[in-house]
Amino acid sequence: MLDVTPSKGNRAMNIHEYQAKQLLRRYGVPVPRGDVAHTPQEAEAVAEELDGPVWVVKAQIHAGGRGKAGGVKICRSVKEVVAIADRMLGMRLVTHQTGPEGKEVKRVYIEQGSDIARELYLALLIDRRTGGIMVIASTEGGMDIEEVAARTPEKIVRVALPPAADMQGFHARKVAFALGLKEREVHKLVRLLLSLHRAFVELDAGMIEINPLVVTSANKLVALDAKMSFDDNALFRHRDIEELRDDDEYDPLEREAQRHDLNYVKLAGDIGCMVNGAGLAMATMDIIKLNGGRPANFMDIAGAATKERVATAFRLIYSDPEVKGILVNVFGGMMRCNAIAAGIVGAAREVGLDRPLVVRLEGTNVELGREILSKSGLNIIPATTLADAAQKIVAAVEGGR
Ligand code: ADP
Ligand code: MG
C-alpha cells in the first residue's frame, strides 16, 4: 500500500477481503456476489448458490499479492471450486507481503468470476500532511502500486479532499477522467467513489484500497478486491467492526500486549526495548541501530502507572526467545522511576534473569529508582545517557553470541 505510514502510537486494524466487501456492499459499492467458506463443503454450498460459468476461489489472509502466490484461482465448475478450496484451506500462503513464513489459510472466499476488460487502481487514505482524505487512482490496476509508483509515477493520480469536507462531484469526476473513463462510466465511478467516501467517513476507516477496480466487458465497474483498515482509536464506536478482528492474524505476543493495553510491535532483531512514548521508542530504536544492533520489538508502556503493568510488559518481552537482551529506556514523568524499577526488579527475579538487561531511567524519583536497581542483587547494567545505554546493550548482546 502506498503512503500509509502508521502514525505514532496508532495501530490499524485490518480486515479480510470478504469482510470489506460485505461492508462496502452495504454502502452501494458494486462487488461480485460471493461468500466465505471454512470447509470444502461450505465452498460447494456457496458455489452452488452462484451462477457460473466462472467462479473464483480466494485465500483470505491479511496480505496482498495473493494472485501471484497462488491464492486466487479461477474455476470452471463447482467440482473444481471444491477441489481448489480443499487444496487452499490449511495451506501456508507466502506472498511478498507475508514474510517468508507465510500465513495459514483458514478461510476462502468464493465469488462470481468477472469478465474483465480493464483493471484500475483506486484507494482512499488519510493524507498525513493535511489530515484530510486523499484519493489515489491509477490506470495500472492489478499490479503492485509500489512498483507503479517507482517505475511510472506519472501514472498515479492523487486528489486531496479538504479536511472535514465532503467529497464533491467534481473531485470524483477528476478521478474518473484521470482513469480515462468515458460517458456512462464516469457517472458510475462518481457514484462508486461517493459511496466509498461515505463508507470511509462513517466507519472511521484509515484506508480503503480497491485493486483492481475493474471495468467489465459489459461496461460495469466492479470492486474485485478490497482491503480496509480502521483506526484502533475509533473502534470503540464501531463494536461490529471490532468483532471482525481475526486474532489468528496477530502475533500471540501482540495479542497479549493488546489485552494489557500495551503498545507492542514485534520486529526482526534481538534487542527487546521497553520505553515510554512513541517518540522515545523511535529514538531508542534508531540509536540501537546506529550502534550496530537490531531491535526485536518496541514495547511502549506509556500510561502504565503501576509496577504491575511494568512487570507485565517486562515478562512479555522476556517470553520472546528471539530477545537476547533488553534495553529499558524510560522517562519517569507522571510515572515515578521507583515504581518502574520495582516493576522491573520483580519481573526480572521471577523470570530468573539470564540475559543482559540495561536500564536507563530519568525523571521523577530517579535516585530512588536507581537505588532499587543497584540493591536488587540482580545483574542489571545501569546506563546514564541514551548513547551509553545503546552501546552497553549492543556490546552485551554481542558478547553473549
Ligand atoms: P491480490 O491483490 O491479493 O493478488 P486480487 O483479489 O487483487 O488479489 O486478485 C488478483 C487478480 O485476480 C486480480 O487482479 C484479477 O485479475 C483476478 N481476480 C480476482 N477476483 C476476480 C474475480 N472475481 N473474477 C475474475 N478475476 C478475478
Ligand atoms: Mg488485489
Task: Please supply descriptive tags for the structure shown above.
19 strands; Rossmann fold; binds magnesium ion; D-amino Acid Aminotransferase, Chain A, domain 1; 24% strand; alpha+beta; binds adenosine-5'-diphosphate; 401 residues
Number of DSSP strand runs: 19
CA-atom Rg in angstroms: 25 Å
Shape estimate:
elongated
Largest sheet: 7 strands, antiparallel
* Mean pLDDT across every amino acid position: 92
What is the H level of CATH, i.e. the homologous superfamily of the largest domain? ATP-grasp fold, B domain
**How many helices in DSSP terms?**
13
Which compounds are bound in this model?
adenosine-5'-diphosphate, magnesium ion
Secondary-structure content class:
alpha+beta
CATH architecture of the largest domain: 2-Layer Sandwich
Helix content: 25-40%
Proportion of residues in β-strands: 15-25%
Oligomeric nature of the chains: single chain
Terminal residue distance? 37 Å
- Unreliable parts: 1-9
Describe this structure in words.
One of its GO terms (molecular function) is malate-CoA ligase activity. Its EC number is 6.2.1.5. There is one protein chain. A hairpin with a 4-residue loop joins strand 11 and strand 12 (221-223). The longest helix has 20 residues, at 183-202. The model is unreliable at 1-9 (pLDDT under 50). The chain has 3 domains: 1-32 and 115-249, 2-Layer Sandwich (D-amino Acid Aminotransferase, Chain A, domain 1), CATH 3.30.470; 33-113, Dna Ligase, domain 1 (2-Layer Sandwich), CATH 3.30.1490.20; 252-400, 3-Layer(aba) Sandwich (Rossmann fold), CATH 3.40.50. The strands form 4 sheets. Strands 1, 8, 9, 10, 11, 12 and 13 form a 7-stranded antiparallel beta sheet that branches. A 6-stranded mixed beta sheet has the order 14-16-15-17-18-19, sandwiched between helices. It is built from 13 helices and 19 strands. It is of the alpha+beta class and 401 residues long. Bound molecules: adenosine-5'-diphosphate and magnesium ion.
